[in-house]
Amino acid sequence: MSRNIHNAGMASKQNKRMFNEEEWSEDQCRTYLSIIRWPDGFCCPHCQATKVWPLKSGRLTCSKCRKQVSVTAGTPLQDTRLPLRTVLLAARHSFASPVGLSAVQLQKAVGLPRYQSAMNLLSRFRSCMAFPDDRMQGRVAVATGPIRTAGSGPSGVPVLAAIATSRQGPHYLFRRILNTDAERLKQNFRTYVQQGAVVLTDAADHWAWLDAESAYRHRPAADQDPLLKRCNNLLGALRDWLQNVHGGAVRTDHLQCYLDEFAFRAEYAEDPELAYTELVRRLIGPRPNRTFLV
Ligand SMILES: [Zn+2]
Description:
The protein is of the alpha/beta class and 294 residues long. The chain has helices at 8-21, 26-37, 84-94, 103-110, 115-127, 182-192, 226-244, 255-267, 272-283; strands spanning 52-54, 60-62, 68-69, 139-147, 157-166, 169-176, 198-200, 217-219. The strands form two sheets. The protein has a five-stranded mixed sheet with strand order 6-5-4-7-8. It has two domains: 2-127, no CATH class; 139-270, Nucleotidyltransferase, domain 5. The chain has nine helices and eight strands. Helix 4 (103-110) crosses helix 5 and helix 5 (115-127) packs across helix 8 (255-267). It binds zinc ion. Zinc ion binds at residues 44, 46-47, 49, 62, 64-65, 67.
């Protein structure tokens, strides 16, 4: 990810695309989101009817149950008071640079009158950036390290970082953990690392339990392996990102959402257009049911 941070060419390409979208009307934005939400045509979330009447307000009335439906109902964008055009522009700006924007930068970029609106919008974005259901598989490099948060003190809070390589390409995971005790790490592995994975770690004592785990093939002291080096480099890039983009102001209880964003950006670092499309698809999909394993 770090090598992309100063990729001005990519940012410039993004900005050209953004210029065209700034001319979209609110109706065009609503239609765009409707097509993503209901690619096979409208389906009422209450009664599954497929016929609908559009209202002047932009909402829809179901022809069968007569309930009014908005394109954002039941999605992470539900109840947003911001124009959909602003939301889409904000999502676009958010990927104009590989590192994203702070709330202050976003407020300025899309002309929001209130800082809190920019903060809320970025929170909605982050709420659907986690990869909840898939597990790391193949070769998996794992590292832990302290991350400073607002109020954490100089020792920081421990974070587990992992990169997996498989036929599907690299996959990233960052989890805030309470500590690096064996039981805590085992619990996270059972949740996030598929059985049979080849696990690369350094020689730290807190990985010793992996040698006795038949579910994984442990490769200790793999410090010189490029995948583990990359994993450690990403922990460094994460520290820089939290400090430089977010001013070191992220609180411990919000850290996981920022880790999700960092992993999402790493996942799509090579293709910001795909990152934007994927974020919009998630923003207009079902609301994620997040549980935090710490
Ligand atoms: Zn209905």
